[in-house]
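Give me structure tokens for this 102-residue protein.
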Amino acid sequence: LEPGEVKEEKNEQEVQDLQSKNKTWWNHTFSKMKPGGIRGSIMTFLSIGIGAGILALPYVCKEVGLVNGIILLIIGMIATYWSFNLIIETSFTLNIKKVEHM
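Here you go.
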């Protein structure tokens, strides 16, 4: 390169970064999921958790009874709500913006 000449080429990663920043919400949300991506991982985690919970509910209610099953479900809901609030309050208190930094 000559002095004062600007390099025009961008590597492939920089181009992909720029394209991902310019995506609309719709394109970002509903575009094809890439292997090993965050959205794919989240969907896998949710499907496993929800599927296991739905399959376990009838069995638990059969074993402990309907009333006790409902009571256990309510206790689980309260524990989940409390733990999510604890995580959120901690992130605000420590000024943490990303889950990776917790």
